Every structure is written in C-alpha cells, then in structure tokens.
Amino acid sequence: MNPLVRALRREPRQLVRLGLWSVVEAAPAFLIGHAIARAIEDGFAPAEPLIGLGWLAALGLAWLAGAAAARQVVLAVAAVAEPFRDDLLTRVVEGALRTGSGRDSAAVARAGLQVELARDAFAAVVTTVRGFVFTVVSVVLGLLTLAPETLVLVMPPFLAGLGLFLASLPALARRQRAYLLADERLAEAMTGMAGGLRDIEACGLRESVTGRLERQVGAQAGAARTLARVSAARTAALAAGGWLPVVLVLAGTPWLLDRGVGAGVIVGTLAYVAQSLAPALGGLVQGLGVSGVRLAVSLGRILAMAPPAAPAPSRIRPFGSEIRLDAVTFAYGPHSAPVLEGMDLTVPEGDHLAVVGPSGAGKSTLASLLSGVLRPGKGEVLVGGVPAAQLDPAARVLIPQEAYVFRGTLRENLLYHAQDGTGLAEAVEAVGGSGLVDELGGYDAQVDPGALSAGQRQLIALARAYLAPASLVVLDEATCHLDPATEARAEAAFARRGGTLVVIAHRLTSALRARRILLMDGTRITLGTHEELIRTSPLYADLAGHWHPEPVS
Question: Helix or strand or coil: residue 23?
Fold first, then answer.
C-alpha cells in the first residue's frame, strides 16, 4: 500500500478529530461575509451601531474559537504525520540492512534527512489541503446563504485558477526533482574537488576539474531557470483564482444592485473573496507548489533508496513449546570469538527455566536465539520442532530489559498481541499492574512512553505478553526495574499461565522460583536445581553469595 494512503487510513479517529476541529477553525470563513453585510445593512447604515458592533463581536468570537481550534488541528496533524515518518524510517533502515548499504553511515544519514523532509512536507500538505477544502466549502455556503447571484461572478475564475495550478503540478514536480538532482550532483562534485585539491595541483588537473565543475554549475543553473519558468504558473493561477473574482464583483456591482443585492452584501462578498477565498488559494498554491512537490520528490527518492521489503518467509506454528538446541555455535562476527559454542540444551514443554551467569556470559544472546531474533552460525535452535527463526510470531514473545511502549491508548498497548480484550483486567491484575492503570487514568488513557518510568513500561510489556497467545515466553531481565514483590508476582503469574517460560535472571530470587537453572560461563553451561548447583558449582555458589534481592541499578 502507498505510504501516504496507509498513513491516512491508519488513524481514522485522528482524521475525524481533524475534521471536527477544522469545522470550528473554518467558522470565521463562513461568518465573515454575513457579519460584515449585516453589520452594514442592519447596523451602521440605519444608524443602529449596537447591532453593527454585535455582528462584529460575533465575528471576533468566531476568530477566537478558530484560533483555539487551530492548535488542536496542529496536534491532530502531528498524530497522523509521526506514524508516517516512522513507516518511512523503518523502510529506509530495513532496506539499508537488506542491501548492505547500512554499512555506509553517510547514506543512511542522507536517507534519514529525506525522511524528515518528507514528514514535514506531508504535515504541511495535510494542513494546507484540509484548510483549503474547509475554507472553500465555508465560502460557498456563505455566498449561497448571503447572495447566490455572487457565485456566478466568484466561482468560475476561482475554479479556472485552481485548474491552471493543478495542471501545472506534474511539470513542477519534474522540474523540482531535476533541480534537486542537479544540486546534489554539484554538491558531490564540489566535495570531491575540495578533498583532492592537493592531488589536482600535483597532477596538473586544474583545467579539467574546473571544466567539469563549470558544467555541473551550468546544469544546476539551467535546472533552476527551468524551475522558475514553470513556477510562474503559480502566480498566474493565484491572479486568476484569487483576484479576478474581486474585479468581477466590482465590475458586476450595477448588475447585483439591479437584482436587489445591497451594498453591504457586496462588501461582504468582497470580504469572502479577499479574506477567505484568495488566502486559501494562496495557501494551496504555496503548500502544494512547494511542500507537495517536495513531498513527491522526497518520497520518490526514499522509495528508490529503500525498495519494498522482500516477502517474509513463511511462519510455522509449532506443535508444542519444547526447546532444543543441537550443537549451537554463535559469534557476532566472522572473526569474533564465539559467545556460544557447541551448545546442547533441551527444555521440556511447560518448563520454567532461569538462566544465570556473569555479565557477558551470553545470556541475552541465548534469549535472542530462542526467540528467533538471532540465527545460530552452526547447529539448530528448535521450538516445538520448528527452527526458531521460522516461528509464527504469535508462538513466542520476548521482553528485553528496556521494554517497548508505543504512543496510543493503554488498551492498544496491552492488546497489541491479543485477539480481543477478553481477560484484560485479569491479566493486568495477575502481573501486578492494576495500580498503574489507575495512575494513568484507565485503559483508554493516552500513553506517552517518555513520561513513563522504566518500571511502568515493564509492567505494560509484561501484561501485553501475558495476554499474547504465545506458548513460549522469554523474559530477558524484563523485571529488573520492578520491586522484588512485583517481580515475584509477575513471574509467578507467567509460571501459572502455562507454556514454556525462560527467565534471564538478575536476582537470585528469580532462580529460586524456577524449576531448573541454567548456569552459563563463557561457552560452558551447567544445568540443575539451586541445591545441585550450590553443591557442584563454585561459580554459582559465588554468584549466589554476591546476589541481592534489591534491584540492580
């Protein structure tokens, strides 16, 4: 689906909110002609100044309401534009990783800049087009209810100017893209020349390099001149659609007077055109002519730099949640020492395993392998007989130490992996998050991830995982920011939940609650209960002696 269409369809509630506030913002555009006409004809002309002032006061109140609505419009547009930016950035990063260009940090940075330009342009286009549509509708309704005869003088030139501008947009986009490409080529040539000045002088290449740069400068200047010529159509469109109606209304004043239209109504019509219609067209011309073209060019370049993601491999639903590692070896690079080497491990379905070991022993690496985030260099990681990397995403869930919470309602965060809201309150209560729901203001409260503490984010992630249909849950220090009592409650809830539970432990109490403990020490592993490891493993005994029930900072 086109990123623009997806961005607009993703947040229907925000679009409804945007439309409602736009109605309030456009109220002055509808009222201005009526207020001026009535103030003149019913107030000041018959020597009733209070009536005239009352109409003008009503217009002033409408402007105040419109100003307040404009702030809400900005917030609603931002709520639509930010996910659009996230989509583009995800596409850029995935494309860079897939094609290998991710190693070129400069290329990724340039792509990131294009994403920011596209986001800003998208927000400007949404704001501009929305404002134009609501203003034009308000003006048409205002003229219809004030003096329908004026539409004959106002709308034909306005529509002609609008058509002229829209017809020029494709050529404007092409010329804008050509200008940007010429500008980029010139910048690259200048950068290369500046970095090689010494070699250019030493090899006597001054004339050839100068000639090449002159051609680049000439191409850039030619593209700029062509763009300027095409941009002249915007001025013609604004003149035809924004100011020709004023001339026609003034010239048609005798005809309007003959048809019973009063002087105040004519002044109100001129106010509609000069204060609402012409600025709206000017905003559209400027917004689409600059931001719209910039959006089209930036989006085209982003999609070219980051082609659509390759089809995802088929995901398989395992028959169970037994974990088996067969001779698994993993290293983070071809020349790096292996973190895991020849590791064999079996975790029966329904087991509760705690993984302990010193820092750097490979605990988080094991968690990533079990959840399919990493693939082994050698050997196999099987969950229910299926390679972990091919698992159906719904079959397992991994919660890292830094839990992820996205902008949206608390309910949306909690039900991200769930089919419906069944058991929502029970799940939150089970992991100890009921107090958090009250603190945030209920399930429909908006969540700002930056305003949450690390512990609050972990509680949300734990409840989300509890509600997921996954039969394998991997908690990679997922409770390290919780107090010991809440941690114990959450782990006990997952143990009762069913399925296989793997806990990367950061407190001794997590290991004590598990049925079995996996001790990792470099590439060596030892499996047993707490009592067995205390008797047989000096490393485990040492770790147990230094472990605290307090949270690790």
Answer: helix
